Amino acid sequence: MKKLHSYTRAYKKISEFRRDAVSGEWILLVEERHLRPGARDLPEPKKRKLIPKKTCLFENPQKHGSGPPILWHPHPSESASQNAKDWFVQVVANKYPAVVPHHICPKDTRYGPYLSRDGIGFHEVIITRDHERTIADMTTAEVDVLVRTYQERYVSIENEPCIKYILIFHNHGERAGASITHPHSQLIALPIIPPDVKRSLRGSEKYFQKHNTCAHCAELAFEKKQKKRIIYTNKKFTVLAPFASRVSFEIRIFPNKHASHFEVIGKEERMFLADALRVTMKKLQKGISDPDYNFFIHTAPAQSDGVDYYHWHLEILPRISTWAGVELGTGIEVVAFLPEETAGILRKIKAYYGASSA
Ligand SMILES: [Zn+2]
Ligand SMILES: [Zn+2]
Question: For the whole model, what pTM was predicted?
Answer without folding.
Answer: 0.93
